[in-house]
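User: quick one
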Amino acid sequence: MTRTLISHAQLRRGRGRVIYWTLLTVVVVGFTLVFLGPLYWMVTGALKSGQEIAQTPPTLFPQDPQPQNYVDAWTQLDLAKLLFNTFYYAAGAVLFQLVFDTAAAYALSKLRPAFGNVILGAMLATLMIPAMVLIVPQYQTVIDLPVLNLSLIDSPFAIWLPMVANAFNIFLLKRFFDSIPEEIMAAAFVDGATPLRTLWSIILPMSRPILGVVSIFAVTAVWKDFLWPLLVMPHPETRTISVGIYAFAAGTPQNVVVAASVIAALPTVVIFLIFQRNIMSGLTAGSLKG
Amino acid sequence: MTAPAPVKAEAGVSPKSRRKIRDNLTGHAFLIGAVLCFALFMWYPMIRGLVMSFQRTRRGVTTWVGWDNYLRIIDDPSFWVAWKNTFYFTGLALIVGFAVPFFVAIVLNEFRHAKGYLRVLVYLPVMLPPASALFLFKYYAYDPSEAGLFNAILTFLHLPTSEWMQSPTMTMPAMVLASTWMNMGGAVLIYLASLQNISGDLYEAAELDGAGIWKRIWHVTIPQTRLILALLAMMQIVATMQLFIEPLILANGAGTQDSATSVAYLIYQHGFFQNDLNGAAALGVIMLVVLAAFSAVYLRLSTKD
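Assistant: Done. Structure below.
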């Protein structure tokens, strides 16, 4: 391990050692309280009855656990439907992004057609535009697509297609493809492989890690998104889970809303715990060298 | 006499350049899906937003109105309140949300144990849907009675309790707290990665020169991570200026005495409740100009020295 701010030797000697272990304990306990504490409070708070939650001082453990709150959340808010919708949008977003963004990044990295750099530049320029600035004209576009005169409101394409226009993912994929040696491409062409065949049989199998990162980003992006699905998926039948909970919040008991929020958070938390290594490496790789 | 031209050109093309054309076409075929999506949902809306801000659509009839939308938006008293709130949030979030993750990353980087666990903890809130996390804050943490989590802690510590979102002065700090808790994980991980790139020799040399811990942070850590610090500060400012979901959920939009109204919330209000998409588009353009001007000044300053 390389040396950091404080040397190893200093941390292992008498006083340094004591300070190190004290600080480590304080930080581990403190972080657990700060980051897991609220989640614990959320999960157990949703188990409390209406009276217990209003009690002073609040109870650390639910005295009379009410799993009924979670059942109520599931049935009253029709969470099964909301979860299904969100999964469906997330899966489609992954598929569309993988197909179109991978193809585009492959073209920009390996096929390099005329004006490729101009197109890449125009794509990267969109990273400079804050999402809020475009929300109104994007909505206008979705309610009345130019040329086609179609409305995508309440159609999953209103989520899938804009997700493809993700310059960050294309950049991430392109950079990965750039690192694949040119000789491999040349060898494939000499063997008579078409560009599509080369992509499918040579490039993609080598790119599994980055494809995984892009997929996870797509799922969490759809899962966490709020304003866009609120606007383009207004019908109760097509809502995403975050929007559904928000829409019901006003007329629903607080504990039930929080119970629903716990259920809504579970899938992303589970995905994170399983894929944490890929997520963290993808996050830092994409931002550091970018 | 225009028709034969392409045929002639075709005949004159050598096999080599014909292949080049074919390769280009293949390349563009791979690009077409993404390019169409960018064109429809990014490039066209950019232009459309600008055009819309100079038009007014009433009962299906669109007319050019010059600067009317801008004047109407600026005339609205909530415009200035929203900017004041947004700048306040951005400033406060920068002080808290910028210094805290950097310091946390420096501490985490020194640990030889429990590093993975701590990293997972810090990033966990980032993975929660913001709506979920904000309902937790709204109903349990910021409950203004003494039954609320934060007030219970304050009572336990014999400190005065707060009304949180009910109090116009606490609204912004409370939103910054929630937002920092939800979002700081990303910054911590990026700092951690850049701290790991600092060569140990630099610290070694600084220590031999008699530099203490703070001096080493000041003279080695900060200069070595300056670029990433500047970049993240910029990204954070752009992100926090778009403050939206925190006021919407925590403060039901405007908050007590308009203490939560943000520019983004105003765009939402104009566009989708006051039937004023043109005004909302004008507000969007104003926001873009402010952010662009800000970025330009910032880039100038951070690349100067």
